[in-house]
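Why do we bother with a discrete structure alphabet at all? Because it lets us treat a fold like text: something you can write down, compare, and reason about line by line. To make this less abstract, here is a complete entry for ABC transporter ATP-binding protein. Read it the way you would read a sentence in a foreign language you are learning: slowly, and without expecting to understand everything at once.
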Amino acid sequence: MTWRIEADHLTRVLPATVPVTLVRDVSLTVGEREFIAITGPSGSGKSSLLYLLGLLDRPTSGTLRIDGRDTSTLDDRALARLRLEMLGFVFQFHFLLPEFTILRNVELPMRKAGRLSAAAMHDRAAALLEELGLAGHLDKRPDQLSGGQRQRVAVARALANDPHVVLADEPTGSLDSKNSEQVFQILRGLVHKGGKTVVAVTHDMEFAARADRRLHLVDGTVMSDERAAASPA
Ligand SMILES: Nc1ncnc2c1ncn2[C@@H]1O[C@H](COP(=O)(O)OP(=O)(O)OP(=O)(O)O)[C@@H](O)[C@H]1O
């Protein structure tokens, strides 16, 4: 199945006495198998744009289409369903639930989607965690893991419902260079081996330089949108 996310003149203004424009007139298309880094100075609207693309926020004006469907016509419930089925999220701070084992944390999005039996959810969560090198840790709680391990759990959780797109906000922002490299390679593998699309907001220039496409934002606007000449396999 092919899909596309199309942003057409997206603008997001925060209403206030002096309104703040977070995202200004952004038009772009995100397609299959893309590895995109969103860069830009602090406060340039990177996270705000990611939240719009991830259906976590709604634009003030402009349209966001997914598979040709205008998302402004969807109510919150339909948006939540689309998000659950199509998108996975990884944040700088993992937001794992501290009281649950990592296995349970990865099962949670599957429970929400309500498609699989308990046994199938367990097996899928275990398989994802094993693929990410966490086989021996399934019954541990997040605070028993290192920062790099926790971020890999967050990636496993993002993949739980087999999304088309993984949206990541500073996925390596709280990691040392070794763990950053590992998370980068995992995200790149999701695209080049797994056929997914990854859109990552990053301040990490080494990360951005090795993405296949770079969107550079300034003051909420896309200043440049460049693609690498050839994507390494
Ligand atoms: N809830 C809010 N209230 C007021 N201002 C906000 C709010 N959320 C974001 N902003 C402002 O909107 C602008 C864009 O924020 P955003 O977080 O999208 O930028 P960013 O490029 O991701 O920044 P950073 O790299 O520092 O994370 C910033 O100037 C920020 O201060």
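What the structure line is telling us, in plain words: The mean pLDDT is 94. The pocket of adenosine-5'-triphosphate is lined by residues 14, 20, 22, 40, 42-48 (CB under 6 Å).
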